[in-house]
Amino acid sequence: MNNIKTFLIQTIDNIVTHDFSFTLIEAIKYHNWYENKKVYDYILQETIQLPLDEDYKPYKEDLENIVPIGSVEFVLKYLNKYYNINNIKPINIPQQLMKPEYLKRWIIERATDTNIINTGETPIFVKDNTKIKGWTNIVEHNRGYPPGEYLISEYVEIDSEWRVFVFNNRLVGLQNYSGDFTMFPDVGLIKKMIIDFNYSSAYTLDIGINDKGTFVIELHDFFSCGLYGFSDYKVLPLMFINTWNKLIGG
C-alpha cells in the first residue's frame, strides 16, 4: 500500500450515506485538484476489511495510512479488529467547562448509583459517561434507569441548537442543526469555552440557546459527527486524521 493517507469510507448498499463522508470525498477531490497531485485517497467499502489479500496480515505501516470513516459502530469495529481497542469514552461535558456561566443548569458529572430513581418533580436528562452510544434518555419523575456511570442534567427547554467545529483550539465552523436558526449563539462565550477546554484534538461542541442564554450541551471527538453543512475543505481531512491519531494513541 502507498504512503498517502487513505480514508476507508463506509457505504451501505453501495451508497455513501453519511453527510461527513460525502463532504470528505469532495474535500479529497479539492486537495488533489488544488495541489495537482494525489494528496489523499479514499476507498468505498461496506465492511472494515482492509483491501488486501485475504491471507495477508497488514503491517504497521499499512495501518498507519488508513483512516476509517463511517458510523460509530463502523469505526469501533475497525478499532477493535486492528488495534484491539474496545471502547472510546465520550467527552460529554469536560471538567474544564463545568462552570455556571457555561452550563446554565445543574449537572451531576459522575452519578454511579446502582438503583437510581428520579425523585424530583421534573424530568432529568441522563447520558452514559463511559461509552459512546450508551444508555441515554429523559427520565421522568419516579422513574429509574440502569446501573452505570452517568452524566445527569437538569432537563431544560432549548430554543436553538448549534454545532461548533474546533481544530487546533480554533473555531473553524458553526452550524445550526435544530430549532430557530435566527437565534445566534454568543460566539465570545464559545471562544472562552474553547480556550478553557484547551483540547489537543479536533472536536465538536454542541451549544444550546434558551431564555438563559448560550450554554454547552455536550462535546464529541471528531468522528462519526454530522456536519450539518460544515464544509471547510482545507481543514476537514486534517480534522479526521487528527482525531484518528488521538483515538489510536498516536
Instruction: Give me the strand/helix succession.
Output: EHEHEHHEEEEEEEEHEEH
Largest sheet: 4 strands, antiparallel
Q: What structural category arises from helix and sheet content?
A: alpha+beta
Count of separate DSSP helical elements: 6
Unreliable segments (pLDDT under 50, ≥5 consecutive)?
none
Q: What does the average pLDDT come to?
A: 91
Strand segment count: 13
Strand content: 25-35%
Silhouette? globular
Helix content: 10-25%
Cross-sheet strand order for the largest sheet: 4-9-6-7
Report on this structure.
- The protein has 6 helices and 13 strands.
- The longest helix has 17 residues, at 19-35.
- It is of the alpha+beta class and 250 residues long.
- The protein is globular and about 60 Å long.
- The protein has 3 domains: 5-87 and 243-247, no CATH class; 106-154; 160-224, D-amino Acid Aminotransferase, Chain A, domain 1 (2-Layer Sandwich).
- 24% of the residues lie in helices and 30% in strands.
Highlighted features:
250 residues; 30% strand; 13 strands; single chain; globular; D-amino Acid Aminotransferase, Chain A, domain 1; 6 helices
What's the layout of helices and strands?
Layout: E1 5-10, H1 19-35, E2 40-45, H2 60-63, E3 66-69, H3 72-83, H4 100-103, E4 107-111, E5 116-117, E6 124-128, E7 136-139, E8 144-145, E9 150-154, E10 160-167, E11 170-179, H5 187-197, E12 203-210, E13 213-221, H6 236-247
Parallel strand pairs: 1-2, 1-3
Antiparallel strand pairs: 4-9, 5-8, 6-7, 6-9, 10-11, 10-12, 12-13
